[in-house]
Please model this.
Amino acid sequence: MGPMVESAWIAAAAAAVGVVGTASVAIVGFRISRSTNQATIDAAKANTDKTIAAAHADIHSTLDATREGQFADRLSVAMRKSPRVARSKSPLLAS
Model:
């Protein structure tokens, strides 16, 4: 083999090693990136689910408190307007 052919084979082998190395790094990087992104998405979903559950519970407790307050207000108004209650001698209504 002549020196030119020998150097061409060396250059081709180096190029092949470079291409294979670049492709393998790209594949490994893609797989690691995909698994990392999936873990991030799963963590974000879990966090969002917890936030929504907490907001749901908070809204329900607020609605329950509002309903109880409205019931007490309506009962109070009804008791003041009722002629039967106004004539009664109940100590609860003495105030």
Q: What stands out?
A: The mean pLDDT is 87. The two ends are 117 Å apart (CA to CA).
